[in-house]
Amino acid sequence: MSEELVRVRVEGRTGVLTLNRPKALNALTHSMVATIAAALDRWEHDPEVAAVVLTGAGERGLCAGGDIRSIHEDARAGGQASAAFWRDEYRLNARIARYPKPYVAIMDGIVMGGGVGVAAHGSVRIVTEGSKVAMPETGIGFVPDVGGTYLLALAPGELGTHLALTGAVMGPGDALLCGFADHFVERAQLPALLAALRTAPPGEVLHRHVRDAPSGELRANRSWIDACYSADSVEEIVERLLACGVPAAGEAAATLLTRSPTALKVTLAALRRARELGPLERVLEQEYRVSCAALSSADLVEGIRAQVIDKDRAPRWSPGTLAEVTDADVARYFAPTGGEGLSLAASASSQEVPW
């Protein structure tokens, strides 16, 4: 079954992974994570495979994230299946970041949540004019994971804070600016690029297909984003957004006031901590603690219900306001898990891959 959900094949000198749940926007399951990990293990020492390419089936996108319906069911039942899934998923994210061969992610269409985890830690990350990249977790009472807080913390200025708290979508230009992607290739050129990768390494073929990306929105909004999101608390961020007089800032404040107050405060704390933690592995370990804590929270179940199950778009958060979320509430998310945690070997920097 897992081989059907991820098509694994070798084309010329390239190992190709195709996420194959198009009706579910290629949302990741535990078995899919295991299939990808096993393929990477096989190909790492296979001299016939020079590079890995990740793509998604269908026309809508690479991957919309994890299977949150399954997470909802597990959270309601008080189970541990989601914790086991995250443990293996985050290990895969770290493995992708350190993979010794070029790992080419085709980030066309929707790339969100877990899709970012299997794509944006790769060594060659390609976006198109159709790319929509985001970490929208606060909208379901969750916190950015899969190494998302690592990437967001590295974005210029406070752009990552804005993206993390609001869940705003990045087009190709903004994904490049914020460090979620490396190259822009027009969608019509993808078949030719993939064909070229069958016989030559990325460094020899990319220049024939890479173009300048369309301008994004974030660069023009950098001044008010940096000024507002540098505040020490979510409450102050909202106050600054409302007071700065820029319409887009007011819209961001309105968005924040619809998000889970607890998720917002935990996300801000996670981002600020991520800046000090060092390599990706340390951040993933923190994210695992946070995710496991969220699994037992009312907001995760309620957020998925409102956005995905019932689709009434009217979550009833608990606590319902930012003022009601205490420092102790936030600290609970960063405490040791109490069960099997996540421990990852880390190196000081990503391995250089041979091009």
UniProtKB/TrEMBL annotation:
EC number per UniProt: 3.1.2.4
Any one GO CC term of the record: cytosol
Annotated Enoyl-CoA hydratase/isomerase domain residues: 15-334
Any Pfam family: ECH_2
Origin species: Streptomyces violaceoruber
Protein's UniProt name: 3-hydroxyisobutyryl-CoA hydrolase
GO biological processes: L-valine catabolic process
InterPro entries on file: ClpP/crotonase-like_dom_sf, ECH_dom, HIBYL-CoA-H
GO molecular function per UniProt: 3-hydroxyisobutyryl-CoA hydrolase activity
Catalytic activity: 3-hydroxy-2-methylpropanoyl-CoA + H2O = 3-hydroxy-2-methylpropanoate + CoA + H(+)
Keyword annotations of the record: Hydrolase
Superkingdom assignment: Bacteria
